[in-house]
Design a protein that fits this description.
The protein has 279 residues and is mainly alpha-helical. The protein folds into two domains: 132 residues, no CATH class; 101 residues, Structural maintenance of chromosome 1. Chain E (Arc Repressor Mutant, subunit A), CATH 1.10.10.580. 63% of the residues lie in helices and 4% in strands. It is built from eleven helices and three strands, in the order αααααααβααββαα. It has a three-stranded antiparallel β-sheet with strand order 1-3-2. A hairpin with an 8-residue loop joins strand 2 and strand 3.
Length: 279
């Protein structure tokens, strides 16, 4: 007897673990309500379905079931359809409620003249007719609306991430690159003139740790080095960059590319000599 109780207890635990580890989907909830509430799949009572759907979500939350965002979105869409029915007492199309009315083609009106007298016409408002909502139509419209909303959310997230990433990499203020190069060169000359005991300055110290100034100053420094006015020194990748005045660096360290220049000049001389021998 005790063995049977242990087996039953183990089975119940397995079933409970299976249930509580499973994500409840909005489609499963609707199909379950159609069966339990005995709703006609060819003529669904949206008011009853939406009310029971919300009750079911509350039950799942009380029982600690995981309620996904799609389940909550489906609840919002059902309430939108329900409110349309309560306001107008009829619906033309679920797609029209969820996605808006499609623009009708406009036709150019032509004036027609008749010899006979035209009888007066009495305007009558069209009598709205209630359209039955089938289960297939409802599920199709909800699925389309949820997928559309998910794509919109993903697109919004991608756009925000892109803006955030470019916000870190692009300068916020516009400036003249020519003026910036001149300003940096003058700043370096003044700095080394005032601090004669220093022969170089770190890039971090030069920009005073300002992230935006790092971006604004990096390209002008590269231009100054290419113009042979300064020397940028970095021993290893991602190490600190040090800024020298070119003349001071060459006096203290010599030209590190001198050997390469000699080799290059020798190669040029040999190529010229070969061309002359051919002639």
């Amino acid at each position: 007897m005790q063995k049977e109780n242990t087996i039953n207890s183990a089975s119940q635990n397995q079933i409970q673990d299976l249930l509580f580890s499973r994500e409840i989907g909005w489609k499963e909830i609707i199909y379950d309500l159609i069966n339990t509430e005995q709703l006609d799949p060819w003529d669904i009572n949206i008011t009853t379905l939406s009310d029971k759907y919300l009750e079911k979500i509350k039950e799942y939350e009380e029982d600690d079931f995981f309620t996904s965002s799609k389940v909550l979105l489906a609840a919002a869409l059902l309430l939108r359809i329900k409110s349309e029915i309560l306001l107008n007492q009829y619906i033309k199309s679920i797609d029209e409620i969820l996605f808006g009315k499609k623009e009708e083609k406009k036709y150019t009106m032509e004036r027609i003249e008749l010899d006979e007298e035209i009888p007066s016409l009495v305007l009558r408002s069209p009598i709205p007719r209630y359209k039955k909502v089938t289960l297939k139509e409802l599920m199709s419209a909800l699925n389309k609306a949820i997928n559309t909303e998910n794509r919109r959310i993903k697109k919004e997230i991608i756009n925000k991430n892109a803006l955030r990433e470019t916000g870190f990499s692009l300068p916020k203020k516009k400036f003249s690159i020519k003026d910036k190069i001149k300003s940096i060169h003058e700043t370096l000359l003044i700095y080394f003139e005032k601090n004669k005991d220093k022969i170089k300055i770190s890039f971090t110290e030069f920009v005073n740790g300002n992230p935006e100034e790092k971006i604004n100053s990096f390209f002008p420094l590269l231009h100054l080095e290419n113009s042979k006015k300064i020397w940028l020194e970095q021993e290893n990748h991602f190490d600190e960059i040090y800024i020298w005045m070119r003349k001071i660096y060459l006096e203290k360290n010599g030209d590190p590319y001198a050997d390469l220049k000699d080799v290059f000049e020798e190669e040029i001389k040999e190529e010229i000599k070969e061309e002359l021998d051919k002639d």
